[in-house]
Structures are given as structure tokens and as C-alpha cells.
Write a structure and sequence with these properties.
The structure holds two protein chains of two kinds.
Chain A: H1 2-95, H2 100-120, E1 123-125, E2 137-144, E3 150-155, E4 158-160, E5 163-166, E6 168-174
Helix pairs in contact in A: 1-2
Chain B: E1 5-9, E2 13-20, E3 23-26, E4 40-41, E5 43-46, E6 52-54, H1 56-60, E7 69-71, E8 83-85, E9 88-90, H2 92-111, E10 117-122, H3 128-140, E11 144-150, H4 151-158, E12 168-175, E13 180-188, E14 191-200, H5 205-224, H6 232-248, E15 254-265, E16 268-277, H7 278-290, H8 293-302, E17 312-316, H9 323-333, H10 346-358, E18 375-379, E19 383-388, E20 396-402, E21 412-418, E22 428-435, E23 448-454, E24 460-466, E25 472-477, H11 485-497, H12 499-528, H13 535-554, H14 557-589, H15 593-621
Parallel strand pairs in B: 1-10, 10-11, 12-17
Antiparallel strand pairs in B: 1-2, 2-3, 2-4, 5-6, 5-7, 8-9, 12-13, 13-14, 15-16, 18-19, 18-21, 20-23, 21-22, 23-24, 24-25
The chains are: A alpha+beta, B alpha+beta.
Amino acid sequence: MVDEGANDSAAEACEGKQQAELERLEEEVKMLRGLLDEQTAMTMEHLELAKRIQADFDNFKKRVQREKEEVVRCANDRLVLDLLGTLDDLERALSANSNPDEIHSGVRQIQSNLSALLQSYGLREMPLTGRFDPNLHEALCVGDGEEGTILETFQKGYYLGPRVLRHAKVMVGKCGEEVKIDG
Amino acid sequence: MARTIGIDLGTSNSAAAVMEGGRPAIIPSAEGTSLGGKAFPSYVAFTKSGELLVGEPAKRQAVSNPEGTVAAIKRKMGTDHKVRVHGKEYTPQQISAFILQKIKRDAEAYLGESVSKVVITVPAYFNDNQRQATKDAGTIAGLDVVRIINEPTAAALAYGLDKSEKEQRILVFDLGGGTLDVTIMEFAHGVFEVIATNGDTQLGGTDMDEVLMNSVITQFKQETGVDLSKDKMAMWRVREACEKAKIELSTTTTTEINLPFISADANGPKHLSTNITRAKLEELVNPIIERCRGPMQTAMKDASLTAEQIDAVILVGGPTRMPMVQRFVERYAGKKIQRGMDPMECVAMGAAIQGAVLAGEVKDVLLLDVTPLSLGIETLGGVATKLIARNTTIPTRKSQIFSTASDNQPAVEIHIVQGEREMAPDNVSLGRFTLPGILPAPRGVPQIEVAFDIDANGILNVNAKDLGTGKEQKITITASKKLEKSEIDRMVAEAERFVEDDKKRKEKVDAMNQAETLVYSTEKLLVDEAEKVQPAEREAIQKAIAELKEALKSNDLEQIKAKMEALTKETYKISARIYAEAAQKGQAQQAPPDQAQEPKSAEDKDSYVDADYKIVDEDEKK
């Protein structure tokens, strides 16, 4: 009897313990589920945020690009406005009825005005002679002359500020060479 | 993390690109950009003083140092060919390595970090030897070539064709400066497979410049008897002008070549001036384009495909910008040309994308779409007011404040439209809803905030909120209303075609809205300032108002504008008199400063309210 009773109560106690354990585990599962939901929601939120920021960045880049184009256009406006003076002068030269010599000296004046205007924008001419340098010059052909020197400049080269704006197109000297055409 | 660079190592030009903020961008060459874009010529040169030159400088000195200059080394890759320069021998791999080293230097200068990992593209027909040689060139240059990919595959990646769910067949037509490559690929399960390639290694854009130049010189000779081909300076000017004309004729139908003082004979200076039409250019280059026919036909035959079976066409190389080249390709494959990328940059960009994928940099989740068409709402007079412009990356949110169009308006209707046209009825209607319960108020006073929010899946939420009462209404427009690409292209093209028409219509609606606002505010003035307005003035204004109302009914823009001006003039007379009287009074009374300030601040307040009201109204009409 005693044994039986002891067994019974032991079994009961065991069952009670299991029940408590089960409840505890269920509680834990519930808690973890809640945590998982929370974390999932947070992950989704972060993903959404990352996408929004990426899209914002993209749209920002597009806007900057548009603004850059606008700035370039505005800068061009100023230069074009300054160039209109030269256009006016050329029109005056064309409608003038004076002798060729006077027109010639007028055109020379226009050229010197234009040159001064462009210099005010930072334009500088390259020297017409000297050593050939592929960073400054483009060789269109070679001619008989001192090796590696510029024999003739076909089109002047220019710097704008520190950069080369246009490479000079030149004929380069080469010992014992006949004049050879590009291409 | 070190970034992977994508390199298009071309026969005549090379370019490199890198992923920046999830998008590929071309790395500019250190020498700056040229007419050809951001790519640089694949030239290597050794000067007599032992200096090594790569790119533009090498090309510029080629004529004066032909024995020291190497061009188009790509044609020799994978062969036993050796280049002998100033007594030293170089393999094609070594020459290519010099080009790759320059790219490495430029990329490091651009990014401000060291670069070692690269993806290099090669033509689809390159065999194992040629591919290995390309890889070796990378190794010699101190680079880690993480992958060699086919040029057409890179181009397809740049256009995002790998994002497609379904299988597709892609034709890549690559016409460069001096080579033609036609490739047909099949895309399935994330893999591109080349099924046919063909081409011509001596065909390209330079041939086109040549025929145009010859035509110009021949014409000049016929007209003046002067043969320019003997004059190297003149030849060079003609060449430069022809290249420019060819490029211009891709966007315009006619252009002018003007070369003053090109030459001189006994009779004085000669000027070259000629008009070139696109038709003329097309006639000239037709024989060159005809030479593309053979490779095209053979590739299609080898792939056993008909035009209908091609799903997408990609164009690579500068000359493919010519409308005639595009028409030629369309004759074989139908109107399926993918657009939106620079044909000279897409191979390098695709290589950069591949590089980023290999480095694990590109995660699908962050590949975002753009809105293909603008989204907005219909406002007063049927104007489509855009809130989100086309090509905006999504997800995104935009909001704007609108107001009512008439006094005591109890509700506003929000009609959501999609498209580029100025007037709402010309665009696609996506949905509409009403926001009721607006408190009785004069027009323009209630503030209704309309917010557009598109999520990453393209689902659009439109929300309208009365900022006065806090009442809200909203609508959700799902992606099922998404349009086909052809439909989008059609709508964009239509908007371009009607741009002038639409502007006129919008101008008229704007004028009418302005006129209505003017009538309203003037009538309000007559009531508010009743005691200050003299009977004669009142009569004149009322007459002007009646005439403006009549003009509005007539629907004649010029009439409306004229009558608006007349009414404004009458109103100004009163306001000028009222202000003058007030100023006189102020002086006569010698009012103490704080009193004098009183009416002024009241005036300020009035004008503030007025300005505020105008802003709201402008928004409404924009």
C-alpha cells in the first residue's frame, strides 16, 4: 500500500512536473515566436529602409546630374553673351563699304578682341616650334628635318587653364623622310 | 572591400567601368574625354627616348613614330606573333598588359583605392588560346582576372536581360571602328549560351568616314578644280569635319560642312561649303552596310532562327547609333532593339556588373526599378500635374499641397493619371477617389496634401489629407496595371510628338484659370473695400469683369488675355489711389511711429495671406 501510494504520488508528482515543464516550454515557444515575428518585422523594415535610401540616392544622383547640366548651360550663357560682341563686329565688317585694306585691318582688330576675350577665360596658345610632345601635339605627317622637332604647325594648340584644350596639329621632323600624308 | 573593375579590351578602343552605388559607371581616362566618349584608343607606343605611351598620346604620335607604335594588338592575341620595337621583342600579351596597366592606374586615381580584381571581355569567337592570352595579359599587368566573359554577354548584362524569367534569344550586333561581330545567344536558367557568331574583321566606322570624305573632296574638285587630297592640312580639316557631320546626321536630317579658306589658287582663297543630308550619307555608306548582310545572314542560318524567333536585339559600337544601321538590323530581327545605354559603353558596364556579382556586391534585393512614365493628378481645367517624374527610381514618396477651385467646395476629386502629356485626358487613368467633408471656405484656402508613395514592387498608394480637419482618403493601385514596354514607348513618343500642341492647350487652360482667379479676387476686393471704391470706379471694374467673363465663354485665348489686362489696369487705378490717399493721410496726421506701423503691419499680413493663397493656387494649376 505504502509502496503503491508512494508510486502514485511519485507518478503524480512526475506528471505535475511534466505538465509544468510543458507549460514552461509552450510559454517559451510563444515568447520566441513573438521575438521571431518582431525580428522578421524589423528585418523587413530595414530592408524597406535600405531600398528607400538606395532609391533616394539614385534620385539624388539624377537630380545632381540635371543640376550639373543646368550649371553648364548657365556658364555657356555667359560665354555666348560675351561672344555676341564678336558676332556684331563681324556683321559690321561684312556690311562695311570701305576698301579691302581697311576691312582687313578691321578684321584684324576683331581677331585681337576675340583673342583677348578668350584669354580672359583662361585660354593660352602653345608655342609654334620646339620639340614634338605627344601630350601636347598630334603628328599629322612627317617631313625632312631635325628628328623630333616641329617643322610646321597646321592648327594651333591651346591650353584652357592648366589643361590642354586642343592639341596642336603639326608636321614632325624625321631624318631622310619624304613628306608623307597621314593615313 | 576592394572593388572589381570591368574592362572592355577592344581592337580599336578600350574602356573600363566600376559599380558605384549599385550602378555601373565608366571610369574616365586620365587624358580626359574625346569625341569618341570616355573610351581611349588601344594604342601602345615606345618613343625613341624610351618612354612608354598608352592611349591618346600614343595615337597622336603614331604618324611620326610608326615603327614604335602598336595598334590593334587584339587581332594577334593567342598567336605566336611577336612585336619587335627598337630592338626588343614583345608578345601580344605584354602589349595588352600595358593597356591594362593604364586602366589600373586610371581606376586607382578615380577610386582612390588600389585595384587588383578585374573582369575582362573577349569576343564570343575567341578560342581557349586567345582567352588564356587575355588572362595572361592581366596577370602581367599585376591584375587578378577573376573572369573572362564574352562581349555580347556583357552587353546583355548591361541591359539587364539576365533578369528575365523566361528563356530568350538575343542578337548582338557589334559594329566598332574596324570590326563587325554578330552573335546570337540563348538565355535560359540564368546562363547565356552562344549559338552562332559571325563577322568581318575589316569593316567598321572608319570606312564610313572614308567614303564621306572622298565624296566631299570629289565634289570640291568638280566645283573649283582644286584637288584637296594633295594638301595634308586641308585633308585633315575635311576628315575632322566629316567625322563630326556623320555623328550629327544620326540626330538631324541635314548638316553643313563649312571650311573657309580651305585652299587657294591664282584667283584667291577657296572656301568649302556643302550641305549633306542624311539621305546622301546613307547612299554613300550603303555599300558598307551591305557588307554586313553576309555575316548577318550566316549567323541567322547557323542558329537556325528566323527574325520572329529573336526576342531582343542589342547594338554595340559607335556606328550603330546611325539610324540606317538600326534599320538594317531591324530588317533581320524586327523592332526589338534595346535602348537606354551608350552602345560604346555597355560592354564595359556589363563587365563591371559581372565583377560586382562575383564579388557578392550586387544583391538582387537592391536592384531597383524606375517608374517608366510620370504619375500625377488631374487639376483645374484638366491639366495633368505630375508628382513623380518618369525614370524616378522606386520606392519613392512625393507630396504636394493642393486646394479647392471654388468657394465652399465640399469635396475634392483626386484623379490619378499616368503619362507624359500635359492634359489629363490624354494620359492613362489609373483610378480616382473623392475626399469629402471639406469645411466651407473660400477657394484656395483649404489645404489638401496629396501624397504618392510607390513601393519597391511598383504598388502605388495615393493618399489625400485635408490638413484643416485631418480627414483622409486613399487608394491603392497595384502593379497589375503595369504597361507593356511597347505601350510605354508609344506613350513617350506620342508625348514628344504632341509637345507643341499640348503646350498651347496648357497655356490656354492656365490663362483661363488665371482669369477666373482674377475675377474672383477683384469681386472680393469690391466687397472688402466697398467704402473706399468710388461709384465710377466700381462701374468700370464691373464692366471689365463682365467683359472678361464674356471672353472666358468665348474660349478665345487672345481675348481672355486682353480682357485680363484691361481688368488689371482698372484695379490698379483703385489700389494706386487708395495707397496714395493712405500715404497722404499718414503725412498729414504726423502719426507717431507705432501707429504708423499698425496699418503697415496689417497690410503686410493681408499681402502675406494673399501670397500664401496664390502659392496654393499655383500649385493647383501647375
